[in-house]
Amino acid sequence: MTARYWEQQPDGYLGRGERGDVRALVKKASGPGLEFADVPEPVAGASDVTIRVLRTGICGTDLHIESWDRWAASAITPPLVPGHEFSGEVVAIGGAVRDVHVGAIVSGEGHIVCGTCRNCRAGRRQMCNRTLGLGVDRDGAFAERVVLPESNVWVHPADIDLDLAAIFDPLGNAVHTALKFPLVGEDVLITGAGPIGLMAAAVVRHVGARFIVVTDVSEPRLELARLVGADLAVNVARERIADAQRHLGMREGFDVGLEMSGHKTALPEMVENLTHGGRVAMLGLPSGPIDVDWAKVVTHMLTISGIYGREMFETWNDMSAMLQTSVELRQALDSVITDRMPASEWEPGFAAARRAQAGKVVLDWTEVPA
Question: Domain 21-166+326-364: what homologous superfamily?
Answer without folding.
Answer: Medium-chain alcohol dehydrogenases, catalytic domain (3.90.180.10)
